Amino acid sequence: MNLTTKTLLVLAALALAACNNPRGGGGFGADGDGFGNGNGFNDGGITSGSLGDPNDPNSIAHFQQRIGDRVFFTTDSSSLTEEGRSTLSAQARWLSANPQFDIVIEGHADERGTREYNVSLGERRASATMQYLISQGVSSNRMRTVSYGKERPVEACPEQRCWDLNRRAVTTIAGGGRTS
Amino acid sequence: MTRLFVYLTALLALIGALSTAQAQPLRLQITEGVIEPMPFAVPGFVPENSAGNEYAQPLARVVASNLTNTGLFREVPRDAHIARVSSFDASVSYSDWRAINVQALITGAVEVSGNRMTVKFRLFDVTSGQQMGEGMQFSGSTANWRRMAHKVSDAVYSRITGEDGYFDSRVVFVAESGPRADRTKRLAIMDQDGENVQVLTDGRALVIAPRVSPDGTRAVYTTYETGAPRIALMDLASGQRQLVGDIPGAMTFSPRFSPDGRSLVFSAARGGNTDLYRLDLGSGQMTQLTASSSIATSPSFSPDGRQITFESDRSGTSQIYVMPATGGEAQRISFGQGRYSTPVWSPRGDLIAFTKSHAGRFHIGVMRTDGSEERLLTASFLDEGPTWAPNGRVVKFTREARGGDPAIYSVDITGRNLRRVPTPGPASDPAWGPLLP
User: Are B295 and A151 an interchain contact pair (Cβ–Cβ within 8 Å)?
Assistant: First the structure.
């Protein structure tokens, strides 16, 4: 499933490179490596899937570009903002309409904290995100969480605007069909 | 008493430094306050056969560099030397060394046959005109020539300060490469002075925050090889590793050894809550130590194994706590302004080193184990994760300049002698091992 995810996310990154990121943040490359592995392309089992047309409400492209695959947090907080809840509600509707997809929720922190505390903080953000999706009817069986702490910034600059983008929880689509 | 940025300290009381007829042993006491570093000389070691030539100067250079890097000693350069040491057993021309204000003289010799070498040294108190302690010799493989120079340095340091040295020790750390947003991190090990770097993992999985076992044979660290944080235990000699401390449904991280090396304490995060657990490495038995709806992480045992210090945000922001090693009531010990993280108990048991962030700056500091006498040793854009020298006199930590790469630094617990440890590339998360046997 790792490679499926990676493939999908690499494709997603390519697709997004050609479009405008609705969040204006760019830099999806970091999230592309959803499992922290650098060069895992040495075994088989790679499946690929179309991201589809973002105008198709059931496409992954629509999920990532129109709904938004991420929510943001304030410093040292795991409380969802109003905007975040609205994004997650739309994610939940998409997930209900597309039950063949599982998701991995990645929690991230900015670099203004110590490494291990930030792993906990990222877990708390991922967990808050998952709890909200559960409240919106998404089955917990379809979701798992991972915290990257401050290890995978989406924007690496030592400034507030980057830290704001790095304090995030990203919902990644983990491949099509749970038979894989 | 809390004092910010106390960069003073380390009183080098030079007992017997006065050139009186009454000869007192050369002595350097590391307490508080600053006096001039003690001047020493270390001429090139005497090669006792031609094969020894190659090591004669390098051995002396490593010893000189170790002593100088403590900030407690100052080398009198070789071109100022009057006396020439051409034989290890020749008598010392004290007056020639006194004339250039040398107080401690280290002489050495080296003999090499094949890939074996023997290194000898003597330490002299120039002021009183006496040898200090007996001469010593070390034998071993030429591949370990730096270690022998470190052992000479440890013996000299120990005789003059009365404390154990820390030169013949190694540091496990994280070697970083690649773009910030998709960093490759490999576990690595080096000598305490940054030499002899060996990389231990292939970089395919992100690794963070290693710690070394009390006997220096194993490391524990957090790895993302399964896709989520897990704890790996590695045998450093063979490189063999295994995942330990699995708690289904939880991310496990922040491991540290108990002082007897038989168990780990670590964090497990699930459902937005991070608690501490203890794992008996022999039986695999796990015990939950904290059960609070907050974050508890970065645990560290007291050297007697009876207590654990850790950080928790149960009060609202991250602060330092101490609790019994079996769990139970935790006492908060940090009460200053800002957030406190990564407490680490000193090997002497007297202090806890920590990371503090306040008003946009990060500091490495030390406090007594009851939280009193907080002293900040550093300040920068990002300093974090102190690790103690085996003798409890120096800490290494990660420093990241604004927009720069992380690097490993060391600083005395007096706040003096801040130095960057040279590494081949960006480096973070140092974990200082024990003094080697």
Answer: no
